[in-house]
Amino acid sequence: MDKLIVEGGVPLTGSIEVSGSKNAALPILFASILLTEPVTINNVPDLRDIRTTIALLLLLGCDCGYENRKVRISPNALHPKAPYDLVRTMRASVLCLGPLLVRIGQARVALPGGCSIGARPVDQHLKGFEQMGAHFELEEGYIIGRCRKLRGAHITFDLPTVGGTENLLMAAVLADGETVLENAAREPEIVELANFLMSCGAHIDGHGTSCIRITGVNSLHGTEFTVMPDRIEAATFLAAAGITHGELLLRNCPFAELEAVTLKLQEMGMEITATADGVLAKCARPLHGVDITTQPYPGFPTDMQAQIMSMMCLAEGASIVQESIFENRFMHVLELMRLGAQIKISGRTAMVRGVKRLTGAPVMASDLRASAGLVLAGLAARGTTAVRRIYHLDRGYEHIENKLNTVGARIRREKE
Ligand code: EPZ
């Protein structure tokens, strides 16, 4: 396992290119199973989760190639099985369920199991597919799904699940008749998936709202599609500029999709402006505390909760963080406290009291975004911070230390 050694105290200055969106690319790769012709997907970030998805698509029978952030996929004769060894390393593997059911009428997908941030059930996915005519059994930890032909249905989610919306959207585009998804998630990554599917001939309306209408078609043709930039990677770099009191220009950076984040960072004292060359973020003044509650899009994203908490640790005054999406997404708190942060947790609420400085120490990454928060804290801490188990980080950030070092950070990767 690798670790990152971070020498703190350097204001970051310069420009960084934002990579393609992991959480848009993953469902789009799985959606390629729906097509009867080859597809080319551009701007796909070089991440562990992408490599895992390509390995899974190969196992499912697709021909796949990945080179220079371009993925070429030819969906051939499909096999129904997504094995546990792959699924347990990436929960998003459950997104092959909808495409397999609607293409070949069967699927054998390992139940992903929980992860460090929560139980991560898939009950909303299965309930929707059952309304469309699928039947499921659980056998030796595998969800076995069968259906003669999926038919359109009026589905209302109990909660705006991102993965559930994506899975049912992918099944509905080839199902018989019309499907309505109510209380659907509105994330930009879902809009991107819908745009990809429509570029292949799908009939979709209302994507990006909480009510999506899909009219099934008989088949979907190939396409060439370029994935949008990663709003969470971009927001992480905005936070890096803030916590180090630097000045960063983010090229190819989404802006409108980051409104909930930029408003909070500006409230903390950052200046964030969209320019012709990209998004300029700087922080010359001391940071001050803010309160946040994580919400489904367009609210403050749960995937930025750890990163902004690191900033709060060094902000003047107190901050309150309410984590309303996942039941256990404070694993980074104890690690931040090892650096000198003052944080109290009560259930899904954390109270952060800003301190004058953090002091570097060895810390342990527990999940993807917690790792990012610890790297940010290390960039601002006095001395050396060793972030261990950074395989979590490599799942969602493309060569993060290289990008940060080009703007003045002093980070090196070492073998444990
Ligand atoms: C997606 O996960 C993202 N992953 C997550 O990003 C992100 O944190 C999450 O959406 C919320 O925005 C990808 O897009 C690959 P959900 P997903 O279904 O789809 C509960 C990252 O860091 N729920 O919207 O799994 C669930 O337990 C990752 O990039 C059910 O109860 O999220 C959770 O509490 C981490 N039943 C809440 O809903 C279900 O059937 C939100 O889950 C499904 C979900």
Report on the architecture of this protein.
- The structure is a single chain.
- By secondary structure, the chain is of the alpha/beta class.
- The model has no long low-confidence stretch (mean pLDDT 96).
- The N and C termini lie close together (5 Å).
- It has 14 helices and 24 strands.
- A 4-stranded mixed β-sheet has the order 22-23-1-24. It has a 4-stranded mixed β-sheet with strand order 2-15-17-16. A 4-stranded mixed β-sheet has the order 4-5-3-14.
- It is elongated, with a radius of gyration of 21 Å.
- Residues 23, 26, 91-92, 118-125, 159, 161-164, 185, 302-303, 325-326, 368-369, 396 line the site of ligand EPZ.
- Pathway: Cell wall biogenesis; peptidoglycan biosynthesis.
- Phosphoenolpyruvate binds at residues 22-23.
- GO terms for molecular function: UDP-N-acetylglucosamine 1-carboxyvinyltransferase activity.
Can you describe this structure in just a few lines?
The chain has 416 residues and is an alpha/beta fold.
